[in-house]
């Protein structure tokens, strides 16, 4: 039976806000899913022409390539400060920063915390994969206890390296943030939840409500030395024990 | 008609920035520039503009990066230790071709140093400071009225060349009160358009602001573009002042507050019949090498006087290129030379 393409309904396509540039991410890595979710959100809210993305340093350093919107590439850890400057200069813009765990929760600790504390009307996407992917798999502030990395070859020892930092929980202690949530992507239900959370975080900004943070537990199959499937199971069974999923603040 | 007021250097730079159309100002408190920050805190919000006391100098310069990306006139200010913290951001601003104004009210160093006037950040300001092959335009006012004029110029040059511009002041200039005529506020409609800014991709391709390219050949081209810009700036924007140079046998080379003190020393020396003049760079980057070399061709001595261990002295010697003697007199640690101190040095070398 021949297929009549003209009569078929298209149910899935590349968001219009994404370019056709090929991802630089490794196979199985969640950055690609997150990028798509953001693109879809920008489409649904119809904000591509007033959105400015902030690309960090790390695996997502090329983030400015994926979106059909203005973008600024910034210094390691400083994305929330740059977003502050941009948003204050042009409040009509929709400004989102895309930051990894090293960027957001280590070298950018001060900038991240204080942008949240000022309640900047921005959207922060915080990708937590518990490792420094781009530089070769070193320890991140979120690396799990006993997790092996290239700088904790015998596993993270809390006696000398401390514990994985729950940065979203710290931000959730502040009075200003409107929405702080932790999401994951290890199965379709989590992807749907995460998509709703990202949309809410952008909608809050569109509505002028204030600071929204979506932490997303992500995988790094390459540096975790796991298959993508195993990496998903690891997030579901192990990582979420340390970083529980769900809303931490919702004043929207 | 502009009014004449008795104002402190720090406040004059702040007010001149406001009148030059500075839309967003970000800074962290530090002595001896606190009055600048406080003037902005009092005045920017009531004008509907942005003032943020940032959590750090690092954050402040990155807020500047963001506001500059959005295409508005923006400034930060600090003093020496704080400027060190801004160096990463300044490198990114230069590498991304963004216009921004940075004020350094220099104090004694290194380390925590003290809060007294100094010129010990000349190397940092003129030779890089941050990483990579970049320069800032560096303007060195010598009086409070000139600080107002150079603040206006700083914003214009930053926009014209899409480059960071530093106002290199010192604690003396920042704290001193002088009668000054403030410039008239600019008409915002007269400001240059910035089609490269990230203001939302409406009816155009996205604008991307970055200082990054993994490909060596591409990054080389980005560097060459920067160097071409620096050549244009060197060709067009060198500024300096000569006082009593025409018949001089000894010329003092000094900038900023020290140049003003040296001017008094020149008058005292002239009263004694000594043929002494003053060469004052107003842009310390780009440095007026050719102009100073021309002076060196008809004097026996170029005496550099600085509140440092001899930082501008290196540029003076490059300029003079052994055409004249190049002695040095400097003070450090916040000690300010008096006209008499400088006159004593002049007497050692004048014929």
Mean pLDDT of chain B: 97
Q: Would you tell me which CATH topology of chain A applies?
A: Rossmann fold
Q: Return Rg of chain B in Å.
A: 20 Å
Number of domains of chain A: 1
Class derived from helix and strand content of chain B:
alpha/beta
Provide structural commentary.
The complex is a heterodimer of chains A (252) and B (351). Chain A is α/β, with parallel strands linked by helices and 252 residues long. In chain A, 36% of the residues lie in helices and 17% in strands. Chain A has 9 helices and 9 strands. Chain A has helices spanning 31-45, 79-89, 101-107, 109-117, 158-161, 167-172, 188-206, 221-224, 228-242, and strands spanning 51-55, 70-73, 94-100, 123-128, 131-132, 138-139, 179-184, 212-217, 246-250. The longest helix of chain A is centred in the last third of the chain and has 19 residues, at 188-206. With 351 residues, chain B is of the alpha/beta class. Helix content of chain B is 41%, strand content 19%. Chain B contains 12 helices and 15 strands. In chain B, α9 crosses α12. The mean pLDDT of chain B is 97. The A-B interface holds A 48-52, 55, 61, 64, 67-75, 78, 81-90, 92-93, 110-111, 113-114, 118 and B 23-24, 26, 50, 52, 54-56, 58-60, 62-72, 74, 88-89, 92, 96, 198-202, 206-212.
């Amino acid at each position: 039976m021949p297929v009549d393409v003209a009569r078929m309904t298209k149910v899935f396509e590349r968001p219009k806000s994404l370019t056709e540039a090929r991802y630089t991410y490794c196979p199985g890595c969640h950055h690609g899913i997150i990028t798509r979710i953001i693109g879809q959100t920008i489409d649904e809210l119809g904000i591509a022409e007033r959105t400015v993305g902030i690309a960090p340093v790390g695996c997502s350093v090329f983030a400015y390539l994926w979106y059909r919107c203005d973008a600024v590439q910034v210094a390691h850890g400083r994305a929330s400060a740059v977003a502050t400057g941009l948003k204050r200069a042009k409040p009509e813009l929709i400004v989102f920063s895309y930051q990894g765990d090293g960027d957001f929760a280590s070298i950018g600790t001060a900038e991240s915390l204080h942008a949240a504390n000022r309640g900047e009307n921005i959207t922060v996407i915080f990708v937590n994969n518990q490792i420094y992917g781009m530089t070769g798999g070193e320890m991140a502030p979120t690396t799990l206890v006993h997790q092996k990395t290239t700088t904790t070859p015998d596993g993270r020892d809390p006696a000398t390296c401390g514990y994985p930092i729950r940065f979203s929980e710290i931000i959730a202690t502040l009075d200003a943030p409107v929405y702080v949530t932790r999401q994951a992507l290890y199965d379709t239900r989590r992807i749907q939840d995460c998509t709703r959370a990202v949309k809410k975080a952008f909608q809050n900004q569109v509505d002028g409500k204030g600071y929204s943070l979506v932490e997303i537990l992500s995988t790094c199959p390459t540096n975790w030395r796991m298959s993508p499937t195993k990496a998903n199971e690891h997030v579901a069974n192990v990582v979420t024990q340390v970083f529980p999923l769900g809303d931490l603040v919702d004043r929207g | 008609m502009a009014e004449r007021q008795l104002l402190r250097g720090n406040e004059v730079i702040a007010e001149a920035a406001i009148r030059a159309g500075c839309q967003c100002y970000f800074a962290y408190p530090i002595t001896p520039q606190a009055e600048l920050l406080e003037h902005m805190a009092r005045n920017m919000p009531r004008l509907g503009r942005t003032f943020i006391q940032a959590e750090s100098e690092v954050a402040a310069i990155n807020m500047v990066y963001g506001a500059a990306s959005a295409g508005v006139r923006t400034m930060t200010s600090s003093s020496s230790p704080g400027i060190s913290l801004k160096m990463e951001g300044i490198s990114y601003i230069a590498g991304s071709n963004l216009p921004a104004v940075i004020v350094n009210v220099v104090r004694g160093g290194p380390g925590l140093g003290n809060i007294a006037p100094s010129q010990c950040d000349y190397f940092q300001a003129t030779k890089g400071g941050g990483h990579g092959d970049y320069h800032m335009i560096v303007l060195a006012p010598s009086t409070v009225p000139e600080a107002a004029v150079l603040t206006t110029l700083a914003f214009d040059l930053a926009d014209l060349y899409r480059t960071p511009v530093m106002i290199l002041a010192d604690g003396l200039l920042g704290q001193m009160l002088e009668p000054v005529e403030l410039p008239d506020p600019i008409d915002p409609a007269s400001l240059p358009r910035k089609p490269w800014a990230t203001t939302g991709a409406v009816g155009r391709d996205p604008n991307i602001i970055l200082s990054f390219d993994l490909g060596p050949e591409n990054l080389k081209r980005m560097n060459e573009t920067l160097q071409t810009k620096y050549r244009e700036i060197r060709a067009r924007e060198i500024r300096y002042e000569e006082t009593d140079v025409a018949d001089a046998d000894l010329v003092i080379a000094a900038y900023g507050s020290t140049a003003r003190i040296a001017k008094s020393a020149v008058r005292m020396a002239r009263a004694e019949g000594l043929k002494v003049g003053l060469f004052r760079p107003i842009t310390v980057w780009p440095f007026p090498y050719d102009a100073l070399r021309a002076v060196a061709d008809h004097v026996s001595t170029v005496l550099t006087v600085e509140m440092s261990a001899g930082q501008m002295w290196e540029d003076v010697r490059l300029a003079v290129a052994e055409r004249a003697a190049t002695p040095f007199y400097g003070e450090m640690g916040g000690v300010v030379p008096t006209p008499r101190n400088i006159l004593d040095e002049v007497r050692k070398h004048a014929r």
